[in-house]
Every structure is written in structure tokens, then in C-alpha cells.
Amino acid sequence: MDLRIDKLQRIGARTEGVLCLGGGLPADELFPRRKLAAAFLSVLGRPQSGALQYGWPEGNEGLRRWIAQRLVARGAIDVHADDVIVTSGAQQAIAIAAELADISGGIVATEDETYPGALDLFRDRGAHPVGSEALGIPANAACAYVVAGASNPRGLGIDPARRAHLLGSGVTLLVDEAYGELRFDGVVERPLLADARDRTFHVGTLSKSLSPGLRVGWLIPPRARMPDALRVKRDLDLQAGSMAQAVVEEYVRIDDFDARLARARKIYASRAQRMIRALRTYLPEARFVEPEGAFAVFVETDLEGVDEAAALATATTYGVSFDPGSMFRPSGERDPFALRLCYSALKSDDIEEAVHRLSRALSDVRARKAA
Predict the structure, then answer these.
(1) Residue 1 confidence (pLDDT)
(2) Could you tell me which of 34, 148, 30 has the C-alpha nearest to residue 90?
(3) Domains of the chain
(4) Could you tell me the CA-to-CA distances from 47 to 40, 51, 60, 69 in Å, in that order?
(5) % of the chain at pLDDT higher than 70
């Protein structure tokens, strides 16, 4: 990670008046504060509540059962509560899977743009992430990492040909479904886990669909790797937080989670359309594909040789921030200059103004480069 960019992103996120198009944050107004508070008080008031005690590395049985049941409903019929490990967010689940896949010194096949947290983790483990959408999965890849349902940063599903290629490759699959239930059309795809149970590490999370502050994610490893996965989980932190697990387990009991997802999809779809209209108005030269879900639009430009940190600093002076495109590229390539623009956490009325400010900032960047 470029420390200059990290510092500028932090400045943009906390500076009053800066409209933040970066970060990938869920909408604040979607957090079910009252229901979560009720769930918290409920579990805290039980005399024998495990919310304040130690638990087991695999996590709460009731929560694991709920996770398994949702996957069974999508076609993964060979998934049970005992197959699920509750983790501290999806990031920990990815880290456990990466260790068990033994990626050190090897190749991790990814999409041509993907989640930066995974790319950084793979590199830190000594692996070499390689974009494989066009070229196919290298025969010597240690594993393939795919963000299914709605990708990050483009918000697209897996097309049938790529899905068939992944399933037919025989390679270990590390499947991240962070946005899997946030497609605008409400379609929740059949999990790859259902068709490659013996070589798929399935990663899920409630960070995008409920609250990232709860840090509740999960990992379903191949059944033969379950003992190793539990060992790694235990060595990392003994267990995911008992309180957060208990609150989530109670919350999904007292609220309609699917109705909540439907509302979230509607809000995010509306904001995506607001951003697309603004991009066509203020940045007509930009290239992008309309997202099918998730939180962002990935925008490419014709600019090359741009210092991303300098461009982000310029944007901040215009009152807007973004995520530089190189963060999402396995090679770290900065050309052509690209941006991930997140609409998820902005009020709808602020989206057009944010893109307008961005267009002025990029005009400044273009002028300076020409000079």
C-alpha cells in the first residue's frame, strides 16, 4: 500500500466538507440501530448468556446454523452448522484460507481488478496475484480468488463461461461473497461451494449487509481441511467476539433480514443510477460498466503517467476523494489512470455534486500534466 495514498484517504474521510467517494462503506441509515440495541439488551439480560463468556473457535452454534441454512436454500445442500467457522470479518476468513492453500511463493489467480485487502494479504504471504479473466487460470496456480455475486470494484456477477472455467479448472477456489446478497435484481447466485465442495473455501460476511462494526464473517473450508482451519483460527484469536455473535444471532431472530436486504438493494440501486447519470454529465469521456450490485463504479480514463497520490491530493482540495485504481489491480499498474467511486455511503443529493467536483479536479490534473 502506498502510504501517501493511505494518509490522503484518511484525511479525506475525516475532513468536514469533503464528499467521500472512497472507502466502500455501507449507508449509515441502513444500520438497524433499534433492533440491534434490542438484541444487545436481550442477550445481556439472560442469566446464562454466553455473550460475556469465552466460546469455542468455531463460534455460536445458532449463528452457524443460520449461516448454513441460508446456503442450503441457495443450493449448497451439503453444508451444515458444523461446517461453518465464525470469523472476525471476511478478512480473517481469507487469511485462514490463504494459509491453508499454502500460497507462499506461488500464484494466486484473481480477477483483473479485485479487493485490495486480499491483494495485500496475498503479497504479504509471499504470493504473486495475477489477473486471469482474459488469460485463464495458470496451471500452476496455488488457488483462484474470486469475489462472487457482485465483484469489487466493478459490481459485476460471474459470467457463465468464467464460472464454468473456475469449476472445471480443478484449482482450489477461495470464494469471497462479501456482496453476494447485494445484487440490485435480488438474484442471489448459486454458490460455487455447491458445485466444488471439496476444493472451495467459502467466505461470507455481514459487514456489507448489516454492519462492519460487528466484525462477523465466516469461513466454510473443504471438509477435510476443517481441523486445520480450526487450529489456525484458534491460534489467531481463540474465537470471534462472543458478544457480537450473540447480538447477531438474536437480531436475525427478531428482525426480517431478507426484507432488510431488499431495502438495501433498492437504496444502493438508486444511488448507482444517480452516479451513472452524473458521470455521463460531468465525465462523458470516462469508461465504465454499469454495476449489477455492490457499492461502486470503477471508472477508467485515458490519462497515463498520473501520480495517483498527487491526483488524490488535488481532488481533496476540490472537496472530494476517491480510491485510486492501482489498489485493485493485481500488478499494481497505474496506467491507465482509474478510480473506484463509491455511491453507497453518500446521500443521493450529494452524489451529483461529488462527481461535479471530481470532474473539476481531474480537469486540473489533466491541465497540469499537459503543462
Answers:
(1) 61
(2) 148
(3) 3-31+259-370 (3.90.1150.10), 33-254 (3.40.640.10)
(4) 14, 10, 17, 28
(5) 98
